[in-house]
Amino acid sequence: MQEPDTFEPEATRRDADVTESSRANRGWWDRNADDYQVEHGTFLGDDRFVWGPEGLDEVEAELLGPPEELKGKDVLEIGAGAAQCSRWLAVQGARPVALDLSHRQLQHALRIGGSFPLVCADAGALPFADASFDLACSAYGALPFVADPALVLREVHRVLRPGGRFVFSATHPIRWAFPDEPGPEGLMVSASYFDRTPYVEQDDDGRAVYVEHHRTLGDRIRDIVASGLRLVDLVEPEWPSWNTAEWGGWSPLRGNLIPGTAIYVCERDCGRD
């Protein structure tokens, strides 16, 4: 869910490996965290659990389970930003840990407040012991920005307890075939859905300052299965009539015609290594 930076980098499609992607996105979010929270803080709230620009709320979705069953659960939020989702989980009686690559985003989590731990780390190398969490979640965090999503999924599998659930949302893959525009110009297919070349914004010296990685729906499912997790549901939220907001390329116009978000509900089977 990217927003414009304070300067105008060159947008291109080119390869970007794990190291370059991590470095670029850590810098981007550190630089833009303040503007991001000003722009979207009201929509996200301080203690709401929103899965994406459509506004699907965990209160109604219950993708992690009924709220009353979250009490006492150890939950890892990956790509937490200002930890709004973790704050909601804490209100339900869960024991969340909010992890983010961006130190500045976590400073906003400190500003808003909360009694749960904040951890600055890369999702591809989770600093937790095996089987540390009952649940894990990520609302547009980490997965759209990493060059090796399978590595992140393997790490999630490792830190989940048997029977644990991981739910994550990301840009719906079909949107990569359309321009990132909220108006009518964003309704014309302009690229191949099957082109996995990353979207990169780079400075005048060719250094990446922002990276997003495209995976097709089949790619996502294969990554999930290869990690040892089991896909139990795939949710494509419809755009609700109450939501009149635009967020980057997300808008009521486009949302009523094509899906903007995909939410993957995964579980670690009991007894699996």
What is the fold's blueprint, element by element?
Blueprint: E1 10-13, H1 18-44, H2 58-61, E2 74-78, H3 84-91, E3 95-100, H4 103-112, E4 118-120, E5 133-139, H5 149-159, E6 160-171, E7 199-202, E8 208-212, H6 217-226, E9 229-235, H7 252-255, E10 261-268
Helix pairs in contact: 1-4, 5-6
What do these coordinates show?
The protein is α/β, with parallel strands linked by helices and 273 residues long. It contains 7 helices and 10 strands. It has helices at residues 18-44, 58-61, 84-91, 103-112, 149-159, 217-226, 252-255; strands spanning 10-13, 74-78, 95-100, 118-120, 133-139, 160-171, 199-202, 208-212, 229-235, 261-268. A 7-stranded mixed β-sheet has the order 4-3-2-5-6-10-9, sandwiched between helices. A 3-stranded antiparallel β-sheet has the order 1-7-8. Helix 3 (84-91) links the parallel strand 2 (74-78) and strand 3. The chain is globular. The relative contact order is 0.18.
Brief rundown of the structure:
By secondary structure, the protein is an alpha/beta fold.
Largest sheet: 7 strands, mixed
Order of helices and strands: EHHEHEHEEHEEEHEHE
Amount of helix: 25-40%
Rg, rounded, reads 18 Å
Strand line-up in the sheet with most strands: 4-3-2-5-6-10-9
Oligomeric composition of the shown chains? single chain
Low-confidence stretches: 1-5
In DSSP terms, counting alpha (H) and pi (I) runs of 4 or more, how many helices?
7
On the 0 to 100 scale, the average pLDDT is 96
N- to C-terminal distance: 34 Å
Tell me the overall shape: globular
Strand elements, count: 10
Q: What would you call the structural class?
A: alpha/beta
Beta percentage is: 15-25%
